[in-house]
């Protein structure tokens, strides 16, 4: 491919790629919230000073309350990209799943356990426990999500390295060792904090929107979380760039990927500037949250596209195109679009109905 | 030849079908509980807001928390787990299903999203909302949950009865296949019954309810068990929509499948009889232990039914399209010529365990063609099934497999590969004796095998060879 990715690809491939990227970004937002949110709560359970009445801070309380739903949303939102990745990269995805069998299947019980631990963590009785109980509980929950993140990373890297498959299988390895694993994992982990800060920032803004002349609770902490995450993810991205093969790096910074590097970088800059503004102002201002949202969307889109460029560069695209064309020939797209619109509208209706009901109650 | 080889994992003495079956039964039970649970909540909300049952509202709030904790977590994760497990068992099957029905799956995903949003709205705010808002959320939740059944049912029933899709290849023909409606209606009744039985357990463990209140709630929940009286009719309709040979396996042709059908039918009958005569008619009180026992019976019925549904597809995973060992019928002839594992890029994981090249080849053939349904020594083990046969018997039986055992696909390899498999089974049966030497391939034996393979042909066998 000698043009900007994905220009020049056949339309079936473009369509599935578009759907994959869009749904992946939605999934990533929820996933980041859970990963960074759990880590934040673990840290707070160790360092934060408790109030005499044991009630959690607004930030910690909101997080605890919303984490189980966010995990549910992450799992549900993850179904769509899981579907489209099977169409786009079937053979690679399935092979990596099979090669990483033990680890891959282990994520299911781990996910169930971590899910229940989130509910336990949320219980008021548990929140009043001493630190030496809540900290290990939190750490165990975070370890579950970290294990899943690590497994996904290895699985992804294994899926794009067909040359390693036969040897990996013959050796019966449980782990895929690659110099890309840790920096890639670090990019994702560090990058999850700006997402958490933004979504939680919006939640805190909403909860305190009617409080006049008041310094918004959580403003300073959200901006610090976001700025720290942005700086760390930039460092991790630089390390990852060093870890990938030079020809892949050239493709990203060259003809295939420069617009996405620019997009992700610009988004990073917009987010950084927005969070600096949040830090300077007394409140969580809507305008800076909005600009940070735009920046995050730019960064996530750019990063998702770069992720695909790295993958495409290592795959034989000629094998994939006929499979995508064949898949696109089956019917059902119009039914999907119809129900997508109807059910999205019903989801919005549910939220509005609850808001109306709560207003009536108050 | 462009055959999609995958690195096949060995599950030791556990048959792969058992692995996916165990998770599948668990997931189906949870999913059907969630579907029926949504409807049951709507019914109890209606009872509450129309003044027909005062404690119904308290029950709805208590039961919904249980529903969320069980179905939103276990149901959702095991659902994803089904996908992962399917990939482990037969990537080609799940790949074909995704190719044909990805838009249907995408539609189902939109229903999942609605289910989660409506469910969590109720879970978090339901106690603070008025009756109208509560009912709206519950109805949307129930519709979304049942909708997910509607869509997935089309895909699963297509595997067994693709019907005229085999000619037209249109999505509507595949989706609304011959067993779609009976399967959908049957599963809907099962969902209602499971939800009612779980409700009986929950009512018994809910704090703050006295005995008369529990009794009233249980009797209302039992209304959801009554539609079970239609199950025999629907069951027969469902069975009649199956292909003749599949029906024959479960009605006596295969003792194991007939036994599982009997477990399914028997358990359903026991639950149905107790519900109708005992709970509904006799207004019996049902305590927690009995309710749990009835749930266990419902689980047994689910297990029996799912096993039968999976087994009835044999020798296919998608009827007349893909054999259970992930080989297309159109590929058999080519693989007989080229050899089925000649181009397999994945070496054996434990090649050193096999002292000769012939045994190694046999192990690769076993891995590729047999290991999806058989183990070497374990559940459905080849040593147990064929160990007492002579070499010649094995050669003949395997060469003409689709005729000697019509629920088996045809052997899809060369004569050399077949002989290697026969030698491997013999070596394993003998307890892996040391000192095995490279066997010279007797041309006469190979010729005989080839003759048997040619006689058998590459097409699927039939119970009635005249057909």
From TrEMBL, chain A:
Keywords, alphabetical: Membrane, Transmembrane, Transmembrane helix
Signal peptide: none
Record-annotated membrane-spanning stretches: 15-42, 66-89, 101-121, 133-152, 185-205, 225-245, 257-276, 288-310, 330-352
Top-rank taxon, per record: Bacteria
Protein name: Uncharacterized protein
Species assigned in the record: Symmachiella dynata
Automatic annotation (TrEMBL), chain B:
Cytochrome c domain segment(s): 357-457
GO MF term (any one): metal ion binding
Xref: InterPro entries: Cyt_c-like_dom (IPR009056), Cyt_c-like_dom_sf (IPR036909)
Transmembrane segments: 20-43, 63-83, 103-123, 135-156, 184-205, 217-239, 259-277, 284-305
Keywords: Heme, Iron, Membrane, Metal-binding, Transmembrane, Transmembrane helix
Keyword check for Iron: yes
Protein name from the UniProt record: Bacterial Cytochrome Ubiquinol Oxidase
Species for this entry: Symmachiella dynata
């Amino acid at each position: 491919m000698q043009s900007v990715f994905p220009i020049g690809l056949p339309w079936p491939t473009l369509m599935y790629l578009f759907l994959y990227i869009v749904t992946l970004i939605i999934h990533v937002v929820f996933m980041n919230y859970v990963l960074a949110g759990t880590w934040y709560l673990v840290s707070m359970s160790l360092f934060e000073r408790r109030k005499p009445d044991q009630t959690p801070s607004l930030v910690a309380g909101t997080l605890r309350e919303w984490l189980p739903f966010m995990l549910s949303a992450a799992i549900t939102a993850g179904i769509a990209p899981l579907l489209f990745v099977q169409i786009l990269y079937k053979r690679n995805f399935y092979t990596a799943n099979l090669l990483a069998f033990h680890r891959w299947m282990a994520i299911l019980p781990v996910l169930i356990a971590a899910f229940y631990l989130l509910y336990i963590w949320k219980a008021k009785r548990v929140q009043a426990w001493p630190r030496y109980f809540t900290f290990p509980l939190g750490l165990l929950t975070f370890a579950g999500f970290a294990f899943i993140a690590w497994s996904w990373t290895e699985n992804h890297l294994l899926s794009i390295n067909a040359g390693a498959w036969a040897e990996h299988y013959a050796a019966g390895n449980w782990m895929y060792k690659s110099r890309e694993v840790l920096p890639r994992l670090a990019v994702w982990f560090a990058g999850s904090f700006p997402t958490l800060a933004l979504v939680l920032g919006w939640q805190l803004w909403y909860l305190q929107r009617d409080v006049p002349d008041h310094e918004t609770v959580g403003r300073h902490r959200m901006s610090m979380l976001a700025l720290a995450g942005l700086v760390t993810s930039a460092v991790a991205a630089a390390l990852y760039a060093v870890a990938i093969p030079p020809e892949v790096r050239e493709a990203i910074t060259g003809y295939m990927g420069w617009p996405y590097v620019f997009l992700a970088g610009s988004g990073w800059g917009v987010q950084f500037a927005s969070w600096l503004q949040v830090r300077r102002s007394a409140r969580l201002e809507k305008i800076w949250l909005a600009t940070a949202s735009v920046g995050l969307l730019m960064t996530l889109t750019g990063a998702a596209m770069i992720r695909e460029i790295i993958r495409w560069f290592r795959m034989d695209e000629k094998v994939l195109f006929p499979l995508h064309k064949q898949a696109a020939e089956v019917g059902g797209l119009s039914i999907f679009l119809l129900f997508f619109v109807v059910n999205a509208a019903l989801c919005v209706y549910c939220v509005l109905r609850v808001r109306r009901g709560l207003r009536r109650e108050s | 030849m462009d055959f999609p080889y995958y690195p096949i994992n060995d599950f030791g003495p556990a048959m792969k079908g058992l692995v996916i079956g165990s998770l599948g039964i668990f997931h189906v039970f949870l999913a059907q509980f969630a579907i029926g649970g949504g409807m049951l909540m709507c019914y109890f909300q209606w009872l509450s807001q129309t003044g027909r049952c005062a404690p119904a509202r308290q029950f709805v709030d208590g039961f919904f928390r249980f529903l969320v904790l069980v179905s939103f977590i276990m149901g959702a994760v095991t659902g994803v787990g089904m996908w992962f497990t399917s990939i482990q068992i037969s990537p080609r099957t799940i790949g074909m299903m995704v190719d044909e029905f990805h838009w249907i799956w995408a539609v189902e995903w939109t229903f999942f999203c609605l289910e989660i949003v409506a469910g969590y709205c109720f879970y978090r705010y339901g106690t603070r909302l008025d009756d109208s808002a509560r009912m709206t959320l519950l109805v949307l939740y129930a519709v979304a949950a049942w909708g997910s059944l509607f869509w997935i049912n089309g895909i699963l029933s297509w595997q067994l009865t693709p019907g005229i899709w085999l000619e037209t290849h249109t999505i509507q023909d595949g989706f609304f296949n011959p067993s779609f409606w009976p399967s959908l209606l049957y599963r809907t009744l099962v969902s209602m019954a499971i939800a009612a039985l779980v409700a009986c357990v929950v009512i018994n463990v809910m704090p703050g309810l006295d005995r008369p209140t529990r009794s009233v709630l249980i009797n209302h929940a039992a209304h959801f068990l009554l539609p079970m009286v239609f199950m025999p009719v629907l069951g027969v309709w469902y069975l009649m929509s199956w292909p003749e040979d599949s029906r024959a396996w479960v009605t006596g042709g295969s003792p194991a499948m007939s036994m599982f059908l009997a477990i399914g039918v028997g358990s359903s009958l026991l639950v149905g009889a107790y519900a109708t005569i005992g709970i509904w008619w006799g207004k019996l009180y049902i305590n927690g232990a009995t309710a749990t026992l009835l749930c266990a019976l419902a689980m047994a019925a689910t297990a029996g039914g799912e096993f039968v549904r999976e087994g009835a597809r044999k020798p296919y995973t998608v009827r007349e399209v893909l054999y259970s060992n992930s080989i297309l019928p159109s590929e058999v002839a080519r693989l007989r010529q080229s050899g089925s594992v000649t181009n397999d890029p994945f070496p054996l994981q434990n090649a050193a365990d096999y002292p000769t090249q012939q045994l190694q080849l046999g192990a690769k053939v076993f891995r590729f063609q047999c290991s999806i349904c058989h183990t070497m020594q374990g559940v459905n083990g080849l040593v147990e099934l064929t160990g007492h046969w002579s070499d010649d018997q094995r050669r003949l039986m395997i060469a003409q497999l689709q005729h000697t055992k019509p629920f088996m696909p045809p052997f899809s390899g060369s004569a050399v590969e077949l002989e290697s498999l026969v030698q491997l089974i013999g070596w394993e049966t003998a307890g892996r004796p040391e000192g095995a030497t490279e066997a010279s391939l007797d041309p006469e034996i190979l010729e005989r095998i080839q003759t048997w393979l040619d006689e058998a042909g590459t097409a699927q066998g039939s119970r009635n060879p005249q057909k």
